[in-house]
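Format notes (please read before filing issues)

Several people have asked whether sequences and structure tokens are stored in separate files. They are not. Every record keeps both together, in the order shown below: the sequence lines, then the token lines. Line labels are part of the format and must not be stripped during preprocessing.
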Amino acid sequence: MDITLEKDQSTLTASQVWRECLTVIKDNVTPMTYNTWFVPIKALALENNTIKIQLPNSYFYEWIDQRYKKLLHQSIMNSLGVDGKIEYIIREGIEPIEQPSEEVVALRLKQSEQKLNIPDQTFQTGLRPKYSFENFIKGSGNELAHAASLAVGNTPLGSSFNPLFIYGGVGLGKTHLLHAIGNQALKTNPLLRVHYCSTEEFTIKFLNALEKKKMDEFSAFYRGVDVLILDDVQFLIGKEQTQDLFFHTFNALYSQGKQVVLTSDKPPKDLRGLDERLISRFHQGLTADITPPDYETRLVILNKIAAEIGLQIQPEILDYIATHITSNIRELEGCLLRLLANVSLASRGIDLSLARKTVGEISTTRKHQISVDSITRIVCEYLKIDEHKVRDKTRKAEIVTARQLSMYLANEMTQNSLKNIGLYFGGRDHSTVIHACSTVRN
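Then the structure lines:
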């Protein structure tokens, strides 16, 4: 005879049961999944062998219910026995701990309603209308980032994901999602002040404001937005003044319940050279990665792009391209455009041999990685200067120009740190590189 032993609930609390559940869950999911989806859950009560847990919002519930329902129930039965049950309680709104209260959010919404009944036509959003959630292709590599972005776009002043930090390699759709968030937020509330800009643009505007003594105007603009969307925050590395300003801007927005969305090529913890205070802020919200598209997603993308450019391609050719171009969406698009060009030049139809030739050209181009050395060589050839002189201590104007241009392009086009770039150019320190970049921008 099988006998099921129940734990004495009189000696257990909801918190104790949930801690036991988390121990089981933690052993069965990745650290990122655990921190993102289970740490924010709170145990509220334990009644009649049922634990009541609170989730931040309905989106949170849907995600967990679809993917981790079985794991949750296993963990509950491990703690409460086979009759153990779980009850979800959805709490819409912003979490009270270290985040604005519901009253702050309500006040912010009321302030929006008190604005004019038409959007501010003079406010520059920086958004590109063509990027939307409707034309973003979902796949296994971007599922979390897409779902979180949609949640933020639909509840721009009440999202639990604040900040939302999306990271991944080049050409995977991060910028598309950023613009989609902004466009969706404006659909939700046309009176919102939504602003998108690249980190490079933010830095240039900051330097110009500093030079023209217009810092009050600069700060007032960025602290006055409702949704700030900043692309490629890795370019804050080495820019100490800009980092400090952004830190205070971030705090001002966050404390008022305003939404911040960020992208980078790396997760926050890997942004070496970035202020620890900023990294800590980035970890307060949700971090979601985007990985290269799988075969099925690549095939869908190719069909979509081919339809947009009016290219008739046989399925076996699309299959060949999807199989051999695997790194990112931009290369898929580039391959079809190059295929179109080859068709035009050769005055022939698209066949498998032409597809192989085109994919080969893409692969060859990919092999030519940009380096500090290649940048310096090209700059010096263009300016007709001996390459070795840019590493010397000479202050001749033409040498300084070549050196500064090379430093600027190395900072923009490679993953080298400011310190490494400085070392390449005769052991100069990172402040020299910062000055060079500023001079070239100006």
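For reference, the curators noted about this record: Residues 329-346 form the longest helix (18 residues). Residues 58 and 90 are 6 Å apart (CA to CA).
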